[in-house]
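note to self — DONT lose this again. spent like an hour looking for the file last time. sequence + predicted structure for the chain T wanted, 417 res
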Amino acid sequence: MIYKLLSFVLSVRNLFLSRKELRVLQLRKLNKVICYAAKHVPYYRDLFKKAGLFVGKDLSLSQVQELYSKIPVSSKDDLLARNVSDLITREYVLSELKAESTSGSSGKRFDCYLTRREFIKKNTIRLRSLLCSGYNPFLKMFNCDAVYEPRSNLLAKLCVFRKKAVDGVRSPDYVLKQIMEYKPSVLVGFPSNIREIAKIVDGNSLHVKTVIALGEMLDAETKRFIEEKFLTKVKEHYGAREVGRLAFEDSKDGKLYLNEDAYFFEVNNDNELIVTTLDQFAMPLIKYNLRDIVEIGDDSRDKPFRHIISIQGRKDDFLVLKNDDLVSPCAIINVITLEKNVKAFRVVQDTKGEADLFMVVHSPFSIESFTECIRDKLPGLTFRIMTVNAIPKNDLNKFKAVICNVQRVAKQVNEYT
């Protein structure tokens, strides 16, 4: 309990650092995790050796930056190609560590291992992110896409940090029933799944005060629809299971701030976000490519953290044109939702330049005119449009709107509006 409290106090203190102080903290942590990985983690020891890098403890901050710039980027596939024993430190036995598993959105499940204290630090960043988004710890929270049930604890009995959860395999009707029984003030989950719940809600009969969307891209239309149905604001959080809560939407200015005291971020030439975990040593992730296309803004005047201007989605979800250019899921969603008679939809691509559009409609409308509109807004893509009775969840228990099954070697991203 003392360690949890200390971790939380230190994380809150970091919100008040200057940008210069934060940079020093980042580089010191970065040097520590790189040195540790070079000595104790076989994967990074081999990676650094192959790259011809000398890793030393007594480096200046400028030398740390120079060393970091020369480290090769690692992808999930790179890590999955190695045995787990090559990815974790020799100082721990695997059975002593706690696993955080990804949902498998890339087609392969990836387990990241942490010590108990590292797990506490990770949860501390999650809690701080919630508080910065306006979360009140005395309000009840409901997670409609949890991977495990929250354990009962002393704080919950004292009416603090009370939460209930159901897993993502449940139907929207079942989840809604559980929400109505629990009567939470805060609703957390995947944007696409919360949208399905919003469709069957009668006004804000749930009396939800805050909706926190995480785990997948939140497009503008989905955000507008949820806010309209729940009569409250949607706060966006960004992250990944293997790394944690990377960014949070601030309740004061609405910007999506990066948790830069726990992670080191950069964006490569393809606008993909590269992340290094600064507080994980059992299984560090150094220059890990999330394959999310993002744009990061300049430093904030009020906070030491930078903010994310836009998230266009995971590169694996981009549709592929015949010339190998890419179209973001946001562009697809923005065009299809122009037709108000479309109740729900899913786009599935198996061939370059072509895609299937499955739609649930409120009432019949001119498919020909709709097809022409899509062709004008999204040149280079041909859609086969079909009406269906329902859109099922995918294998990841999400009502995912855009699914691409095409291998790609992209030249550029087309930014349709």
